[in-house]
Amino acid sequence: MTALAEERKTVGRSSSSHAIAELLLRFRELGIVLALVLVVGGTTIDNHRFLSLTNVQQVLSAASIIALLAIGETIVIITRNVDLSIGSVLGISAYATGELYHHHPHVPLALVFLLAVGIGAAFGVVNGVIVTVVRVPSLVVTLGTLYVIRGIDGAWAGGNQVNASMLPNSFNKIGYGTIAGVPYLGIIAIVAVGIATYAMRTFRTARDFYAIGSDPEAARLAGIPVGARVFLAFVLSGAIAGLAGAVWLSYYASVDAIAGVGYEFQVITAVVIGGVAIFGGSGTVLGAALGALLLNTINSALVVVNVSSFWSQAFAGGLLVSAIAFDRLIAVRVAPALRTRRRARV
Amino acid sequence: MTTMHSQPVLSLEHAQKRFGAVHALEDGDIELFAGEVHGLVGENGAGKSTLVKILAGVHRPDGGRLVLDGEEAVFDNAKQSQAAGIAIIFQEPTLFPDLSVAENIFVAMQPLKRFRRIDGRRMRREAAGFFEQLGVRVDPDRLARGLSIADQQLVEIAKALTANARVIVMDEPTAALATAEVERLFGIVQTLRARGNAVLFVSHRLEEIFAICQRVTVMRDGRHVLTKPIEELTTQSVIRAMVGRDMDALFPKVATDPGGVVLKVDRLTREGVFTDVSFEVRSGEIVALAGLVGAGRTEVARAIFGIDRWDAGTVEIHGRPLQTGSPTMAMAVGIGLVPEDRRQQGLVMDFSIERNIALASLDTVSRGGLIPRGAERKFAKDWALRLQLKYGKLTNPAWTLSGGNQQKAVLAKWLARRPTVLIVDEPTRGIDVATKAEVHRLLSELAAQGVAVLMISSELPEVLGMADRIVVLFEGRVTREFARAEASEDAIMRAATGIIEEAA
Q1: Is the confidence at residue A88, as pLDDT, over 90?
Q2: Which domain does B278 fall in, by range?
């Protein structure tokens, strides 16, 4: 009789703590939206020009580039890997786009974007092959390609700079144009995040990414082609970074050898704040994109309230650490309940 | 074997499997029939798990035949076994914690609609349908993370049903289940049987075997002992068949005159792991912690040594209470722990042999915070000699040693600290007979010198041969304590399988 009572008690405890954990995990995207509202609200009270159309458009455009990169990074991280080379890929793709226009001013827009995506995908292939065939940890591989690609970029660009005057207006317009007040870049990012969110829910290949990150060994046993999927994740990440390079050039309208330096860390920070587990298996593209928006909003807010931009880095770092600590807290909260559950028999 | 009029769905004949020098399976035989639950029992190390892994395609047998529907089959990997309609439900299932229950059931086999999109609605509906067939309630939409072991097993069974498995192997499925969950599982096993599935049910618990099996196979020391219909067997006869070896092994047990109590464990409890564990070890005494794998023996040892915390109870050394969760304090009062897994926990495999031996004694070896190479070597050489360690060079990495010598190196590491209490977890697992005898001799000598020895062992002859007293655990509780004279394999086995003695 007591045994039964104890059993019931532990069942109740484990399921209720699970419910809390699940709520908190779902809460993540809501939590970011809430944080956004707080940051925007607080800053606006201090300085009402924070919500001016120009400023909102600027924040949205800058966040869009990080959000785009975050889509690819999310896919890679979900498979329990990481892609550190995206900043360099963005840089070389942006420079290549600029050079293309420099030498062939009348090249069609579609071809330009195709080239940017192609360059990125090619570097993704390199990363993917080394990770899946040579079986070097992606952290090391992409740290290496980060420097190699940046080196190639530097050697190619030298001290040169491609600036707005060398770029056709049709291209520059992508960077500054708006529809009903919404910048083109924002629309590009929203459409891309929408497509990626749908795809990540709907296709077997995408669910395979989650399974691989959740338990690589079990994924292999379940007959998932783990190598091919991880390879694909890197190619996608590279292709998206390539695309982001062309988008980046349209926004900043000039490019030299240091375009996109350090972007990989901004992106990973956004992805993790957005609730993507750093060891893979869970998280959404939408969360990562919201994370990017939150980071950029905070950066801009700190400038508006006259805080040195150095603090914005400290802020981003603090946010990142608290996001990870939060995940850990949930895990710790759930574990004892499970342990009790296992041996509730008397 | 009994003559059958129908053909078995799956059978294994004279299967053999070695791992290095260890003969895990010498003669594995099993015949599984449709609509029948077949029980497989045996002591720890009898070869049950190896047999299951051969059926699962995880191991390839070195000899023998696997026959599927009357035709010989070879499984190179788990995938082929699954494709042949065999599903294994392991004791601790491997699900994807981040995917939903429905996704886990259909992983890589999701139903599709137009444009190769996953048909989520159909997936959930079918998952719900499977659970209905099994007569249980599990929400297909919830994440697998945090599911109880019992529910995880259900997901695995549902997975087996989607794959149209005909043979379902359950490897000690009840080991981690609560009473009500076991009953639910039994209901499901009956359903599977009624559907015409062949079920292989591996369990330590004889009462369960007698409750749901129609046929039983007993294994011992990697060999098939008997297969009989359940009506022809009794608990007694099964235990006799499981144990049934001669007590011929000679153990160099030195008779000792135990001194005062050194280690006193009182009502020690770690919630959900072990409960109310009490025993004493006197100076000069060897006390064995016996029980089946998973009974909580290693966990008790880890708690005493301070690796895991305990929630209630006390541990005293010479009457002085220990703090929970402090290996530093445990070592300071003279406890040594030789862990079960010497590769992962006992040795730093890439360190040299001398470093490993001196590792727990650095406070004696070091001078002013530095470790003189010469002193370390001298120290290690001394202990290597005393234990007759066989090595190439002391500077070679520890992985160059054979299994038995690795174990001796771990022992050397702890003996060098001159412990007052030595806890040894499965001290002779996987080592050759000669070294085994040496380890036994060492333990006896230690006890004779006044060390209190707590020995965890799954080998009954070792327990009976070495221990002055035997404490038996079953599912985290002490079921019986035996003095050397009153212990027998039979009685220990009963206590270890939770059979309550009717007036001892």
Answers
A1: yes
A2: 246-334+420-504
